[in-house]
Design brief:
Number of domains: 1
Distance between the termini: 60 Å
Oligomer: single chain
Mean pLDDT: 87
Helix content: 10-25%
CATH architecture: Sandwich
Order of helices and strands: HEEEEEEEEHEEEEE
CATH class: Mainly Beta
Number of strands: 13
Strand order of the largest sheet: 8-7-9-6-11-12-4-13
Largest sheet: 8 strands, mixed
CATH superfamily: Immunoglobulins
Shape: globular
Length: 178
């Protein structure tokens, strides 16, 4: 009887927790404000708020950092989306092979499943089982990228984003305003 209760408790635990990732935190910082030694944004340099505006002529690129709680090794995706322009070419970067290429039909279908429009880059990374596994993707900015952007975080099992961060690329007095 004790064994049966133990097995039942284990089944209930796994069915309620599932294998989906939980987003612990997400951060955005410019490339010059990324501290590679700490694998984090430099102290006081996290871009926050609803009005983040980034000037691509003064800021070369952005780093998007996330920490996810994972009960098992899981594929995590950062999807860089330009909201003001239709999709067009979508790039796919696989962090394990360090290969950038045009997205295949299966990745485009993955976007359609999640109703994602305007995706420019899908970054696929493997997160290891951890209470707060850190992942990072980067995007180089150019003036042609002016407009409204967002980065969404997904795991391999969900169709809704775990989280999203929005920002605007355009002229900003100090390079970045928030």
């Amino acid at each position: 009887m004790l064994r049966a209760c133990s097995v039942l408790a284990t089944i209930v635990l796994f069915s309620t927790s599932g294998f989906a990732a939980d987003l612990v935190w997400m951060k955005l910082c410019t490339s010059k404000d990324f501290d590679a030694a700490a694998n984090d944004c430099a102290e006081g340099k996290v871009l926050q708020g609803n009005e983040i505006k980034i000037d691509p002529t003064k800021v070369g690129g952005l780093n998007f950092l996330t920490a996810v709680k994972l009960s098992e090794d899981t594929e995590i995706y950062h999807v860089w989306i330009m909201e003001t322009k239709s999709s067009g070419t979508v790039l796919f970067y696989d962090a394990s092979s360090k290969m950038l290429r045009q997205a295949y039909k299966q990745e485009l279908d993955w976007l359609k499943e999640r109703k994602i429009e305007g995706a420019k880059v899908i970054v696929k990374m493997t997160g290891l089982a951890s209470p707060a596994y850190r992942l990072r993707s980067r995007k180089t900015l150019t003036p042609a990228m002016s407009g409204s952007w967002k980065v969404q975080v997904y795991d391999s099992t969900t169709t809704a984003p775990l989280g999203e961060l929005q920002f605007t690329v355009g002229v900003a007095d100090r390079g970045v305003t928030n």
